[in-house]
Write a structure and sequence with these properties.
This protein is an all-alpha fold. 67% of the residues lie in helices and 1% in strands. Strands 1-2 form a two-stranded antiparallel sheet. A hairpin with a 3-residue loop joins strand 1 and strand 2. The longest helix has 42 residues.
Length: 422
């Protein structure tokens, strides 16, 4: 019994050391140490096979993003030709689809962040993608910086005629004074399509996009032009932001396509098990950044502005599902058409597949219920219920992270990365 307890303590120490300090110890350009599953004679082949499959998947995801952004933009142009309520609702649905396709690519950004520690090529790509990410999907945003909000009927760029509405102007205005004062990206479009949508009567009407052609006497006296009228500026803002989004999502897709060869060479040089570690760490980072620190911890502290990712469309659950689906799709993907990626982790941690998919399902169910029901409240009982719901989801995602951590330790031990540990 004493030996068993000692072994358990050693394992916990190993786990702690690995999680807190060994993020980069195994990241070398040298072949993996002996002890890995695959014989040395097959390791390069396995690395190329796994890397090719993963980069193919990333390329497909980014191509889908560019396609859906294009579909949204075409739908938006059609809506502006004939603004009505059915057309606005259809455009909202196109936004939801395009935004889900964007959140499905988040895993690849975190993969590049990990890879950047070992590769200047990857670091350069990561820097460019981070800049685009800020332009494409930053939140929370300050809606009053853009258009009218409750009790402020004339606020925002729509009513500030000193700010020209052009692509160059909007790009230069983006976050110029504060990170939340954004003028491009998905959430600017979300606000323009739904309005604040946080109280009865605050859902955007298609009437806000009807073209105006007549100036009042007062407006003529003030020297206004037809293009300066409220609806016309809102129409133009919507069109330009959509055009910028299309350009930026196309740029993201092109970066991956153009740098594909460099990434293949870097990954092939790392070895298969190094790539598996990178994938584990990127999945763990996704859960942490996008769902835990990026949302649930904020909600637990009562920050509903920062914690709700799509507040105007009330579709935060879609993003959460998309994040978890991207993890599951990766794990269920095949290596060379034969082996699930999850099965490669099973060889190091036999309980991995049986555990991880159950945890992802539980986490998904919890997040869907949470984001579709939670809302700010001054009622103490409601606040307690909110906290309990948030804590439940935090615990479920933490269990998933623990499974990743155990698999990582098991894989690192097999690779000989934790030298000197009995």
């Amino acid at each position: 019994m004493q030996n068993r307890g000692t072994r358990s303590m050693v394992f916990l120490i190993i786990l702690f050391v690995c999680l807190s300090g060994c993020d980069e110890e195994w990241m070398t350009d040298e072949p993996a140490a002996t002890g890995s599953l695959a014989p040395d004679s097959t390791r390069n082949y396995d690395s190329v096979q796994l890397s090719t499959w993963y980069l193919d998947q990333a390329e497909r995801d980014y191509h889908s993003l560019a396609q859906y952004a294009g579909t949204f933009h075409q739908g938006l142009l059609g809506f502006l030709d004939n603004p009505d309520e059915p057309g606005l609702e259809q455009l909202r649905q196109l936004w939801l689809t395009a935004h889900r396709s964007y959140t499905a690519t988040a895993l690849h950004r975190y993969f590049l962040q990990r890879l950047a520690a070992t590769s200047s090529e990857a670091a350069s790509i990561e820097t460019r993608l981070n800049e685009l990410h800020y332009r494409v999907n930053y939140w929370p945003i300050l809606p009053g910086y853009l258009d009218y909000v409750y009790n402020y009927p004339d606020s925002g760029l729509i009513f500030d005629l000193s700010v020209p509405l052009s692509e160059n102007s909007l790009r230069s205005q983006h976050g110029v004074f504060d990170l939340s004062e954004v003028t491009t990206g998905f959430h600017v479009l979300e606000f323009l399509l739904w309005g604040t949508n946080n109280a009865p009567g605050m859902l955007r009407s298609s009437a806000d996009f009807l073209a105006e052609s007549e100036l009042s006497t007062e407006q003529l006296t003030a020297g206004m032009q037809v293009a300066d009228l409220e609806n016309n500026r809102r129409r133009e803002l919507l069109r330009i932001v959509s055009q910028i989004l299309l350009q930026d999502t196309n740029a993201i897709s092109e970066i991956w396509l153009q740098q594909r060869g460099d990434l293949e060479r870097v990954l092939a040089g790392l070895g298969r098990d190094h790539v598996l570690l990178l994938l584990l760490d990127s999945q763990d980072e996704l859960l942490t950044r996008e769902l835990l620190t990026g949302s649930l911890y904020l909600l637990l502290n009562g920050d509903y502005v920062g914690g709700i990712q799509s507040p105007f469309s009330h579709s935060s659950q879609n993003s959460a599902v998309s994040y978890l689906a991207s993890v599951e799709n990766l794990l269920r993907g095949t290596n060379g058409g034969a082996t699930e990626v999850a099965a490669l982790y099973d060889a190091f941690y036999p309980e991995f597949s049986r555990t991880i998919f159950q945890q992802l399902d539980s986490g998904r169910e919890c997040l869907v219920v949470l984001y579709t029901t939670v809302e700010p409240s001054v009622d103490p009982a409601a606040q307690v219920r909110n906290e309990q719901a948030v804590v439940e989801c935090i615990n479920l995602l933490s269990n998933t992270k623990n499974t990743f951590a155990i698999a990582r330790v098991s894989l690192a031990l097999s690779m000989g990365a934790l030298n000197g540990v009995p």
